Amino acid sequence: MNEVKLTVSNEILRVCPQFCLSAIRCKVKNTPHNNQLWEELEAFSAEFRSRYSMEEINKREAILATRQAYKKLGKDPNRYRPSAEALCRRIMKGNSLYPIDTLVDLINLVSLKTGYSIGGFDLDQIRGNLELGVGMAGERFEAIGRGLLNIEGLPVYRDEMGGIGTPTSDEERTKITAETTHLLMIINGYSGRKGLPEATSYSVELLKKYAEAREITIFSSTEF
């Protein structure tokens, strides 16, 4: 598998000194749909609607911290919502999530449960190492399913070819597809380390259960 080193820029650490991440690298088998996983996701969605109100979503610790990082970088989190918040709001509106494929559905479930905005990438499409920095004016970023996204002021992971992931959306070039066999999953803790180990363990459990994950390597930000 592609050996990727991850670093966090001083630009990010200045506005969010508590930032931590957890990254999972593994071999996987993606499938178009997994009924058991989808039932688990639907069951959690129903539970979520019974526990939260729309007004409480952006006060969840991980979501709130991501929004605060956006504001400090000059980005409006109501216009460019973190993906975890967008997923939660969709559920609260009574709308079902769109099934994509097993890996993406799995990542969405973890994001919903934890409030973390999670990057899911085809590791074989990443070129060189990754650094988490801040988007620049005019920087090209083709967001998955939504076209060109203005990432100026957004936290963004870049490889040697350009941006591949923000908390709002990932990029088309490195997205998960039916052909993905090597996964890089990055859990972004703008709220700090608290909760990251549990989210990582849960992610690995799901990856083993639904995507036949093997050769699993886990990194924390302190190791980068």
Please tell me about this protein's structure.
This protein is an alpha+beta fold. It has one domain (6-223): Phenylalanyl-trna Synthetase, Chain B, domain 3 (Phenylalanyl-tRNA Synthetase, Chain B, domain 3). 35% of the residues lie in helices and 22% in strands. Strands 1-4-7-8 form a four-stranded mixed beta sheet. The protein has a four-stranded antiparallel beta sheet with strand order 3-9-2-10. The model has no long low-confidence stretch (mean pLDDT 96).
Portion in beta strands: 15-25%
SSE succession: EHEHHHHHEEEEEEEHE
Quaternary structure type = single chain
CATH class: Alpha Beta
- Tally of helical runs: 7
In helices, the fraction of residues equals: 25-40%
Rounded mean pLDDT is 96
Show unreliable segments: none
Question: What is the correct CATH architecture?
Answer: 3-Layer(bba) Sandwich
CATH topology: Phenylalanyl-tRNA Synthetase, Chain B, domain 3
The domain tally reads 1
Q: What is the strand tally?
A: 10
Q: Record the strand order, biggest sheet.
A: 1-4-7-8
Rg for CA atoms: 16 Å
Q: Which homologous superfamily in CATH is the superfamily?
A: Phenylalanyl-trna Synthetase, Chain B, domain 3
Structural class: alpha+beta
Distance, first to last CA:
18 Å
Largest beta sheet, briefly? 4 strands, mixed
Pfam families: B3_4 (PF03483)
Domain B3/B4 tRNA-binding: 64-212
Protein name: B3/B4 tRNA-binding domain-containing protein
GO molecular function, one term: phenylalanine-tRNA ligase activity
